[in-house]
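chain below, 122 aa
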Amino acid sequence: MATGRFCARPGGPLGASQEKGGGYVSLGEGARTRPEKCDPSMYAKTKAYMPPHQFVFRCTDSMMFQVSYLQKILTTLFPFRECLDWELNIQTMAHKGNAWWADPPLAEQGTAVGRQETTLIA
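prediction:
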């Protein structure tokens, strides 16, 4: 689910990642991970942060890609060998891609915040 901040400024993190040479921006916080040295407030201005490690895809719940980046990884993406988030980590390393995390997140998993019901164990 997109947060209220998504519609207000979706170009912020993606624009920043383009300036810094990125191809992918994680819009959610994945497995409750946040960038190092980010503002702890969920109401701070959303910025693009470099992930603290090479495994940049965190529970592929919400992503933005540049078309040129997708064109690069599509040459080796199929068939999948791993679940999508791990496969994208492998592809990013193989193609020397740059990735960024938007924080505070612009999207959140609806089941994680009680907005949607699920039969899956949380």
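The mean pLDDT is 76. The first strand starts at residue 24 and ends at 26.
thats it, cya
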